């Protein structure tokens, strides 16, 4: 079975995330089997693959929603967790791990907005409580972000009154309010009706056009092809193929990638 344990560094770009040989098991089930990724500044990388292949787990490991067993993760050149030969990987101290995780914003399939807070309150909550920003400082910034995702007119609404696509755009604005250097997306459009996916994908494309560094788990092959610079195809906890997206969609090298694409397109 092919497994790529290292991948080409993106040419000339500062490295934002370097994950090497990540191993993660749940009980006896090895869900990630030596997964590696180098994400360069301003790069958009799409992670694709069948259900259960470990895509979400990989993203969750990157921002410490799961702990890894083996391997290492560096964020902007700093070790969040180091490999220990023959043993479990060793994490940096809690404060350092938290600080590195704050460089990453994450958007989930299920929005996860606070239902009892207005749109504006959702966006300003973490900057105030986590970063200690003053309300007067964050409110204009939050409004600017809401304008950017096309939802300034919804600032005083509760999430229950929004469509799925609107909720997801608020979730994106909320993540951006923390001023992350890197955005991680886990199937941000899978919970949406087809007619609502476009508005979210357009918001993501806009971010990509502004050179945000993005790692995007997605089933949207159009987005992967048109917006992502690189594609990583995972299956059974391994990276089976990694290629510039133009090459990948023109001619996947691995039989399993071809099979997957044939089902998706
Ligand atoms: N907390 C957990 N405990 C036990 N097993 C888990 C846990 N989280 C994930 N798994 C298992 O790990 C494997 C990979 O799951 P993961 O959610 O990463 O896949 P995925 O590629 O994101 O799939 P999908 O496309 O359906 O979202 C699956 O077999 C899943 O059942
Ligand atoms: Mg998933």
UniProtKB/TrEMBL annotation:
GO CC aspect terms: plasma membrane
Protein name: Arginine transport ATP-binding protein ArtM
SUPFAM superfamilies named among the record's database cross-references: P-loop containing nucleoside triphosphate hydrolases
Pfam families linked to this entry: ABC_tran
Record's bilayer topology term: Peripheral membrane protein
Keywords recorded for this protein, A-Z: ATP-binding, Cell membrane, Membrane, Nucleotide-binding, Transport
Gene3D superfamilies on file: P-loop containing nucleotide triphosphate hydrolases (3.40.50.300)
Subcellular location: Cell membrane
Family: Belongs to the ABC transporter superfamily.
Species whose genome carries this gene: Achromobacter veterisilvae
Encoding gene (name): artM_1
Sections of the chain in a coiled coil: none
Taxonomic path: Bacteria, Pseudomonadati, Pseudomonadota, Betaproteobacteria, Burkholderiales
Molecular function, one GO term: ATP hydrolysis activity
Domain ABC transporter: 17-261
